[in-house]
Amino acid sequence: MRIGELARRTGVSARSLRYYEQQGLLTAVRLGNGYREYDEQAVLRVAFIQDLYGAGVPSEVIREILPCSSGRHPTGDCSALYERVRQIRDRLAQQERLIGQRRAMLDSYLSGAASPADLAVPSRGTAAPAHHVPPGPV
Predict the structure, then answer these.
(1) Among 4, 32, 60, 107, which residue is least crowded by beta carbons within 10 Å?
(2) Which CATH number does 1-55 carry?
(3) pLDDT tens-digit series, residues 119-132
């Protein structure tokens, strides 16, 4: 299939597909007229690339992941790569916790339990401040 059809089937722009090729993430056969020709597997590969980008994985790591995911890694040893992916996963988990803390602070504000001054957003690697409880009868 040509680049336009691959773009249509994956919902990814032709420009992005060219970028993926430039980054070594996607390959195409060049026809005599210069057109790119992709096989059916390209649809799945593009979806996988999109998922990895969506998870915050940089293109240089994606380039390493792709051969391991298809069983075509030159050395067959993907253990170092797996460790890098674990680190990315752990960083995402930390970001999710921070988002949860921020959401809880905003919920507290919206419910009237906290004032704007109580909504100090923690920086990376710090714990969230305790939620402000307005003084009242004990």
Answers:
(1) 32
(2) 1.10.1660.10
(3) 665 555 554 444 44
